[in-house]
Write the structure tokens for this entry.
Amino acid sequence: MSLFKYKAKRNLKTSREPAAKARNKKTSELSFVVQEHHARQLHYDLRLEVDGVLKSWAIPKQPTLDPKVKRLAIHVEDHPYDYKDFEGTIPSGYGAGTVEIWDKGTYSVEGANAADSEKAMRQGLKKGKLHFSLQGKKLKGDFYLIKLNRTGKEKEQWLFMKKAQTSKKTKSSETPQLTHLDKIYWPKEKITKGDLLRYYSKIAPYLLPYLKDRPESLRRFPNGIDGMVFFQKNLIDHPDWIETAEVKHSNKKVHYLLIQNEESLLYAANLGCIELHPFFSRINKLQSPDFLIFDLDPKGASFEKVIQIAQEIHQLLEEINVPSYCKTSGATGLHIAVPLGAKYPYEVAKKFAVVIASEIIKKLPNLATLERSIAKRKGKVYIDCFQNNFGQTLASVYSVRARPGATVSTPLKWSEVKKGLDPKNYTIETIFPRLKKWGDLFSAVLGKGIDIALALRNLKKINK
Ligand code: MN
């Protein structure tokens, strides 16, 4: 039935074009063909097998793989299945000229089998929108045919175009050239800027949740770890596709970089941002951090003490039913994070941290202090709770540090936080086997937050 028009238009006694027959056998894969047709005007005939015939469109200009180029496609009569192999000269009459196969292969709709793909094609033809993937020699990947609602035209006009591969890949093409990849960033280890970019590309799936929507302070080391460093918060000059967030500080407005995806992560790394220092809060709830952090930095005290204090904090928090997660800072200390779920303002988070720190100092008066001045610490470890302030930033989990060995701020199991732990052993190399083995040990830090009031009641109980 559907080949009636095909037959009516041609004199099949004089033309060697295939007879008006539908395919009778079932095929396991659907075929497509594009024929270059040197008729009165050169055009390309796209034909897709559906239900035993070839649904056909005449495309006046050569199809392209550029997703930005949309080709007009005139819907024409169905062609017999065997037409897919036809090459030759059509004598005078309809379509007179030569036909050559320009491309051919198979196609499917979202990887479905032939029957399901045909079903989707039938529905798509009714709706005027077809989405299919071609496996040809020239045409590869996902394509659209979209019907235009133009009235007064004798034949249906459609548009044929390549689907932009993924938003990710389209964005990559927008990413500016990564530069100076051979520059040595870690002279002793001969680690290059290219190695840093490769690390960030590989770690991106794990790291990005800790960066997304968080204003980012840039610490740029354009000449590697031994070169100058400059701090940059306000990012004014950047490509269009880079997102920034305007944050009001008491005395000024700052436009911070937002690292929203792998491309913007690599953009930052390409600027020489070895380290990533995001806010604890996200732009939609900028006054409420997702977590609080106890920052344990020995600064001259022994790391043994840091370990003991970390264990003590963990134990106390366990006793009051508060989960906590430890990571190396990537430098010389440890960070202990407690999830807050963006439920409390910074001020409340900080006060809670100070309450806990004060308890620890009561227990370990010879090891821990809340004394900020290094001279007055007298070899004790400062439990820094004041990073939990609006606008403060710390090296993110999975951030590389601009330190010898290309160390990484690495999440630890609490069972690893014991004598012998050495932050230098956690690097851009060692992180990946750990991730493979245990996944992201820090993921709960972005999860459900604690109930601070309940935690304080629990603390009162155990202090009785
Ligand atoms: Mn034609």
Residues 346-363 form the longest helix (18 residues). Residues 4-165 form one domain. Confidence is low (pLDDT under 50) at residues 167-173.
